[in-house]
Each structure stands twice: as structure tokens, then as C-alpha cells.
Write a structure and sequence with these properties.
The protein is an alpha/beta fold. 38% of the residues lie in helices and 35% in strands. The protein has a single domain, classed as Transcription Regulator spoIIAA, CATH 3.30.750. A five-stranded mixed beta sheet has the order 1-2-3-4-5. Helix 1 runs parallel beside helix 2. The longest helix has 16 residues. It is globular and about 30 Å long.
């Protein structure tokens, strides 16, 4: 699992690469939570364009970061989920509470 992040104009951008499963979810959760606490962003952009696999642990990870971000007064959106990940998010109804954007990448 690789995590790339940057902060610009109050937006915390976090790109995850690899698999989000019960083995990696805790490490990713702790890392993203630390970034949220440290930066207190107005918005969290979670880029899932490089996630190959996500199980229910990944769904919990996404929903938990949404809760943490909104509890701190911020917003969150998911960017460019892979087709498989988008299907999981849609089946769970995530798009009803978290904005999902498809952004054209160069």
C-alpha cells in the first residue's frame, strides 16, 4: 500500500495505491487520520484511482474517514475510483453521502 498526500488551499489530497483489505486498512486509517488531525483540512479528497482491490474493510475505511472529516467540520469527496471500487461504493450507497467525482487525468 502506497499513500501519497499533499495539502493546498485547505484541501488535503490523499492518493491510495494497492489493495485495501483487512491487512492494510488499519495502517491506512492511522495514516489518513494523522493527516486529517495535523492539517485540519476544509476538504479531504480521497483518490482511489490506483486501488486494485477493496473489501468491506476498505468500505469501512472510507466511511470512517468521512465521519472523522465531517466531525471536524470539513467535507470529503472520492476521486476517480476504479470500476471495481465504484461498484462496491454504489452497492453500499456511498454516493448518497459522499460525492464521487470522475476527473479526467492527463
Amino acid at each position: 500500500m502506497e499513500i501519497i498526500s499533499n495539502v493546498n488551499d485547505g484541501i488535503l489530497y490523499v492518493k491510495l495505491s494497492g489493495d485495501i483489505d483487512h491487512h492494510s486498512a488499519k495502517t491506512v486509517r492511522d495514516c489518513v487520520d494523522n493527516l486529517i488531525r495535523k492539517n485540519n483540512p476544509a476538504e479531504l479528497e480521497l483518490d482511489l484511482s490506483s486501488i486494485e482491490f477493496m473489501d468491506s474493510s476498505g468500505l469501512g475505511l472510507v466511511l470512517g474517514r468521512y465521519k472523522k472529516q465531517t466531525d471536524m467540520g470539513g467535507k470529503m469527496k472520492i476521486i476517480n475510483p476504479t470500476k471495481r471500487v465504484l461498484q462496491i461504493l454504489q452497492l453500499a450507497g456511498v454516493e448518497k453521502i459522499i460525492k464521487i467525482e470522475r476527473i479526467r487525468q492527463a
